[in-house]
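**Reference record**
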Amino acid sequence: MATTHEIKALSRKDEGKGASRRLRHTGFVPAVVYGAGSAPESIQIEHNTILLAAKHEWFFSSVLDLNVDGKVQKVLVRDWQKHPFKMQMLHMDFLRVDENAAIRISVPLHFLNQEKSAAAKTSGVVISHNLTEVEISCLPKDLPEFIELDLADVKPGDIIHLSELKLPKGVEIVALHLGADHDTAVVTANTVKEEVEAAPAEGEAAAAPAAPAPKK
């Protein structure tokens, strides 16, 4: 099971735009917790707590222990609003998790040993990461923080598809249930051909066209 990550929060009763604005001025982020058959709950979290957590992949792709006034509930980050240009989170939505029901969530891909591969050592070959995350389905207890893809054996011309990813036990890729057409290429190692300008034929004049004679 993935590492446990706890986020501490406080309940709040004041709602509306005015109340949210006052919260932000005091260094808190207004948020809502909903789902799992329980009523939505308004909470507030210290902005620095959110800002620091949001720098990590696990914040957006892991089941979190949300501690509200000492009561812990399992949640996923479902939505967030950021200021257009400031380093400020404006609002958060958390979805309660039923530990006995499968969840769907996108997790990041980590690419390993690319520099050791034959493709990386071949001149003119570009290794492209066509996907950086993948949507999976699993029980909360089986949720990985990321999925690793070892590229050590990638050769020029190789293509690695979703179906070739090595998944932890209990984890499935959502797209593969939609049919073979959805078995997307995750990594490609393509040779890039440089276009060389053709040299002018021997004897061809390279001079610019002559200017018209001045009128008398």
In short: The chain has three helices and 13 strands. Residues 47 and 77 are 15 Å apart (CA to CA). The radius of gyration is 27 Å.
